[in-house]
Amino acid sequence: MPRNLFKLSAFALALGFSAVAQAAPHGEVAAREMVHVATAFKGRMAGTAQEKAVADYLAGKFRAMGYQVVEQPFTSSFEYEKADKQKEKREVKSLNVIATKPGKDDKVVIVGAHFDSRTPKKDGDIGKIGGAGLEGLDDNASGVGMLLELADQLKSVKTKHTIKFVGFGAEELGLLGAKDYVARMTDTERGNLVAMVNMDSLITGDKMYFHAGKNTVAKDAKAGHARDRALAIAKKLGVQASTNPGLNKEYPKGTGCCSDQEVFDEAGVPVLAVEATNWEIGDKDGYEQTTNKAIKDGMSWHRPDVDNVANLKRVFPNRVEQRARDFSRVLTPLVIELAGGKAK
Length: 344
Description:
Layout: H1 3-14, H2 28-40, H3 49-64, E1 68-81, E2 87-101, E3 108-114, H4 137-154, E4 162-168, H5 176-184, H6 187-191, E5 193-199, E6 207-211, H7 214-219, H8 225-237, H9 261-266, E7 271-277, H10 309-315, H11 319-338
Parallel strand pairs: 3-4, 3-5, 5-7
Antiparallel strand pairs: 1-2, 2-4, 6-7
Helix pairs in contact: 2-4, 2-11, 4-11, 8-11
């Protein structure tokens, strides 16, 4: 080691920190990893070699940050529709990746995102929806990038509760990874879950959203705490963020849908659904993401020709960097708070 570098390292240690332990500026890790995951692991359909490759990549990144990591395989099935309309069950082998940051007690906060991309679920989808050519920058390399971002931001932060960063497999086939994760939990483990934060599709949508769980808030309004705190933090920081306005009666105000957090919500765990879309257009159900005319039909989900790095960066210049930074600025202090730590 060069002498001047030795002196710098000694100085850093004397101050109680190391260069390695310091988190990158908000959004830097997320923006980089969103693009890398989308382009290096396109076609990461559940059960494929590409899905396993991105899972291994995620595990390696967590380990490099100092986390305890477990890869949890599971086998499930999904329904496939053939050209003659006949339906068949198809087996799929996938996995979840779990990185643990131990706390001082048995309480746990889960921060999750799915890393698989859309698998065609019928013959008519082939070449149009999902498949080997889908990069899935929005859905859901964006969530994976934010998962690594938060892991980086929190790696040196002391918290009372344990934090588990979970990459879920096979979400696109019916939330299969989340279902397997919850099914393995004991009643005690479920009872110790403080909250589950899920991140899915953060780029294409016009607006940033934070939602609570439909089932849990219906039973106890306090289950919307994480949503309310996220919105309050965003307001304090000057970050524009919203929650579902409830314009569609099937989706109550302040609640979200349609991703891994639903499984936890149904299990009675307070959740925070993090996404970017537009709940004020189309059928007002969040499925139409943007009013930008460059995005045909207002959505990029599962479309190889739309949900890719080159296209979304062309249509939304600087959007990746901006969303990465803003979501990190809100979610970092929020997760620390949920885990019983002290945000700076």
